[in-house]
Amino acid sequence: MKNVVDGLANDLINKPFLVNLEYYVIYLILFLCIVSLVALFKSLYSEKAKFLAIEDSLNIIRKQTELTASVTEKIKNDFEYEYWKKKENDQLRREKLEQYVLLAMGIKDVLHKEMEEKYFGSKNEYDDQMWIKAELIQGLYLPEFDAEHLELSSAVRNYKIWLAKGLQELSEKKMNNDLPSTISSEHMKNYSELLKPFIQSSSNIQEKARILLSGLNT
pTM value? Predict the structure, then answer.
C-alpha cells in the first residue's frame, strides 16, 4: 500500500493532472481494492480468531462434560457396589444371627440328651458339635453378643463340670463293684438349678437378636 501511495505522489508531481486522469482513476480503484482486501483479510482473521476461541471453549466444555459424566458414573458404580455389598453383608449377618439363635436355644436340649446317654444309657440322637458351631458363629460374625454369649458359655461350663463329676461317680462305683452303679439322687438334685442359666441366657440372646433383626430389615 505504501508503494501505491508513493507512486501516486510521484505522478502528481511529474505529470499533468488532466492528461493522466484515467491513470489516476485506475490507481484510485486499485488502491480502494487493496484497502478492501486488507479490510477483508483483517475481518476474516478476526472471524477466524473468534471461531478458534469458540472452538476452544466448546472443547473445554466437552472435556468438562466428559469428566463430569465419568465422575458421575464412577460415583454411581461405587454407590451401587456399596449398596449391594451392604445388602450381601446384611443378608449374611441375618443368616448367621438366625443360626446362632437356634443353636443357643437348642444347646440345653443337646446337653440333656448327652446326660441321659452317659448317665442312663439312653440311645439319643443329637448334634455333639452344636456348642462348637455356636461359638464359631458368634466369634466370627456376631461380636455384639459377647456379653450374652459369655453368660451362655458360663452355663455350659458349669453343666460340663457337673456332668464330669457324675461320670466320675459312676466310674468309681463300677471300680468298687458298688451296686447298683447308677447316678445318685444327691448328684441329680442340682440338675434343675443348672438349667436356669440356660433359660435366662437364651432369652437374652433372643431379645437382642430381635432388635438387631429389626434394624437389618429397615
Answer: 0.62
